[in-house]
Amino acid sequence: MNAPVTVQTPIYLDYLSTTPVDPRVVEAMKQCLSTEGIFGNPASRSHVFGWKAEEAVENARNQVAEMINADPREIVWTSGATESDNLAIKGVAHFYHKKGKHIVTSKIEHKAVLDTCRQLEREGYEVTYLDPNENGLTTPEMVQDALRDDTILVSIMHANNEIGVVNDVAGIGEACRNAGVLLHVDAAQGAGKVPLDMEHMKIDLLSMSAHKMYGPKGIGALYVRRKPRVRLEAQMHGGGHERGMRSGTLATHQLVGFGEAARIAREGMSAEAERLAALRHRFWAAIEDMPEVYINGDREQRLPGALNVSFAFVEGESLIMSLRDLAISSGSACTSASLEPSYVLRALGLNDEMAHSSLRFSFGRFTTEAEVDHAAQCVRHAVEKLRELSPLWDMYQDGVDLNTIEWATH
Amino acid sequence: MAYSDKVIDHYENPRNVGKMDEADENVGTGMVGAPACGDVMRLQIQVSDDGIIEDAKFKTYGCGSAIASSSLLTEWVKGRNLDEAAAIKNTEIAQELSLPPVKIHCSVLAEDAIKAAVKNYRDKRDS
User: Fold this and answer.
1) Are the beta carbons of A337 and B102 separated by less than 8 Å?
2) Does residue A143 contact residue A173 with C-beta atoms inside 8 Å?
């Protein structure tokens, strides 16, 4: 028996929602605030305050570019991945509309991509929404089969925000490049966690967000390829910053924070990935012997620290309620006003009750083994308690097939 | 979402959890809801020969408010006669538990459950 390790609760296991800012990032950001700091406007050309700010901004641009092995001139600062997605998809669609009006994406993209595509449909574009396979992956073959002569853009996410699976974006890039179609990748979840290499991957546009990788909220970037050159119609006008692609005074402290976060992520990536994968395996090992517990999404091709699990016969919201020691999110949207289960899990082919019974656990830089052990214990306890309360569990144990029952849906 | 203290109390210490023999002629069973909608309630009542509910048991698959609604209901129906029990309104449950608007359907489900249990008992007796 090990000596009991005390952990502080609640335990934060929601790193896919957002991450705390790394203390080293905070330090870097502080240098850009206050009267003694680098507070100047990076666009000011006539004095040292502006020059210093510009230097800080360009240093950050290098750091972000290095993380994805790109040229710093290919980095466009934005307010976050949502804006990057909007700029990439609308920007390409509007610029290349004479070439075609067809876009390919998947059903489990982030809402920033899906809602943007919906908007383009209202503007007369046609969008194909691919069904992922049962493991949640969109494959190069699926993309290839959906391409048409009038396809101008494919937008497929790198890592999925609910189930954590990682797509073969390199393979998808090959398929797109061969067909002369641009590829946009929403890498909000994967950037800084798993390797991305713009020199070798045929990705034309890549969205990133600082707050998913221990940087501050409110800052992101869009990678825009220079060779072969990708053109965009700007969505934000006013001054022509960022080579005309995104106007607006640059938020020096924010993007210096992003740059530092990117540096830390790149330097520690493989060690951190290994550590997080070990935590994830440890957590799963502690709960996998429970009956009727399933991992959602591909087991191998996934972010190191992310796990989405369905606990049959218990309902997600009540499970979260009994896991007050844990800060996690429910795969089901039950906590909102809508009673619809997650569209991502539904697209994987999960039935409603399994989609309702899912939880997303995401481990990160500050998660410890003791926290993981405590979390697993809490989960076991809560699931057992709720199954004792569940008529569905009773029926399952009595050998009743729940699919044969005619439920009165309400 | 913030739950009321009463919801949390019933959720953490649910009253009258259990299962009765459905085949027993003194037992009425009401099962309402659907897994696809995220809640299923099974409410059972044991009725004396003079029509008084002597005991009640429930099991619920659903959110905390659904569990609390059914737990509260089992407390309320005990000792009542069948007509009184079937007359319990969802608004009384919602008020007692301070349910927010998005959780009103949980109290509706509880009302449906007691009505279904009473009907099941009466159907059994009549046949």
Assistant:
1) yes
2) no
Asked if A334 is an active-site residue, the reply is yes
Q: pTM (2 decimals)?
A: 0.92
Is pLDDT of A382 > 80? yes
Best of A335, A356, A387, A400 to mutate (most B CBs within 10 Å, chain B): A356
Mean pLDDT of chain B: 94
Residue A95 burial (10 A CB sphere; 0-12, 13-18, 19+): middle
Chain B residues 80-109 with CB within 8 Å of chain A? 102, 105, 108-109
ipTM of this complex prediction, to 2 decimal places: 0.94
Torsion angle in degrees (nearest 10) through CA of A367, A110, A193, A164: 60
pLDDT tens by residue, A20-59: 999 999 999 999 999 999 999 999 999 999 999 999 999 9
Rounded CA separation A365/B22 (Å): 52
**Among candidates A317, A337, A388 on the partner chain, residue whose Cβ is nearest the Cβ of B63:** A317
Q: Does A318 touch chain B (CB under 8 A)?
A: yes
Residue A345: how many other CB atoms lie within 10 Å: 26
Which pLDDT does position A154 carry in this prediction?
98
Contact A402, A395 (CB under 8 A): yes
